[in-house]
Structure prediction request, 266 residues.
Amino acid sequence: MEVVVVLLLVGLIAALVLRPLVAVVTVHDYQRGLRYRQGRFAGLVEPGTHVTLKPVTEIHVLDGRPTSITVPGQEILTADGVALKVSLTARYVVADPVAAITADQNYVAALYTTLHAGLREALAGRTADEILAARAELGPVVGGAVASELARLGLELLGVDVRDVMVPSEMKRAFAGIVAARREGEAALERARGETAALRGLANAGRMLDDNPGLLQLRILQQLGGSSGNTIMLGVPAADGRVARASGGTSSTSRGGAAGRATVED
Prediction:
């Protein structure tokens, strides 16, 4: 019994002495663990729980899940002298944990700087109108510009998108004026098209009357038959060149009866 107690005491004392020197590290399946022995890289470790002796061995854990980073709006001068603020959103994953640790002291800060430089390169030589028109294309252009540098950092870029393009207030007013002028021009064009169609219809009607004189007489009779008591005077050219006026209306002495007369004047 006394031997068991002594052994327990010795084990407890040893655990207390070794506790500051022993570390227990758990690497999850979505993480990457890098083992360093006496300051030198010794390889990757599998997911699980690992016990290390602190003065000799160290395990550095990196998150291997995709994550996002936002590059806030940076003021960039365009080719036509307009100061735009363009912000980016990028998704990336640590593809090579060894390169991510050894290539730069802080790979996240390096990624931020690289994206900012790639954005400036993508916008260089473009005017403000070209940037606004090609907004959806800027993300892939930035991604292609920084791909080699991110590979050196051990990062894989999953996608880059332009988040916001902020323009100066005076440029916003200018764009609003351009849009208003464009809308006014479209409205004027539609009015002109309507007037042209109306004139074309009148011209066609005139040609039909020239080709078919009887249509005018039928139209006069139709108008007289549909009148509701008001007198209608129409000038109709007669065969001898004089003007015949036709009038139609409702007689005051007959109910619903239509009366009409035509006179020829010199």
User: Anything to note?
Assistant: DSSP finds seven helices and eleven strands in the chain.
